Known about the structure:
By secondary structure, the chain is an alpha+beta fold. Helix content is 33%, strand content 20%. It folds into two domains: 9-170, CATH 3.30.1330.130; 175-212, no CATH class.
Amino acid sequence: MQTIPEYSSAELLEKMDSMGFSKELRESFRKCIDFHTYPAPGMLIGVFMVDYALSLIGKKPDDKIFVTSETPKCLPDPPQVIMHATTGNHRLRVLPIGKFAITLTPFSAKDAAEGVRIYVDRKKLEKYPIIAAWYDNTPSFKPATMKKQLVDDILTAGRAILSYERVKMNVTHKKKWTSVTCPSCGEQVPENMMEGTHCAGCGSLAYYERME
């Protein structure tokens, strides 16, 4: 089986130009490809999702918007690059749900915020069998020979494989907290993050073993 070469970043951007993508959208793709280090199919779809969501809520990328990604794979990167929504500034939350969906909600001083949830609509993938095979992770998708066509189909489809719903989310406002010392490790931890008498690092979230 002969492997079909994938697009380089430059080739992909040239293709977007030939397809009539706006300068702003091409720039979003360029930045996201650089950040992600390669044009992953899921990341490309994610750029369309963020662009679509922003248009639906009537906001600009530099507005204060909170993002929830329902998967840790590929999708969290576009909002970080395009909107500067990160886990560090508390504007990006990643939930391990496993759905390729993302929710954008503008800042709200109230206890609830209204926004939009964008998701890949499986029914709409029927028109794009290669995207469907990749999305379903079936053996019929052959990366060596189908990856380039997959990218072609994603660019052609754009928003056509996406659906949205208006949603309302509860808002957790920043609260003051006090620091306590974990008796097990001796390190400081916010009191509200303790698991009983020990911190999560010494309990349910322990992930390393100290070496002597």
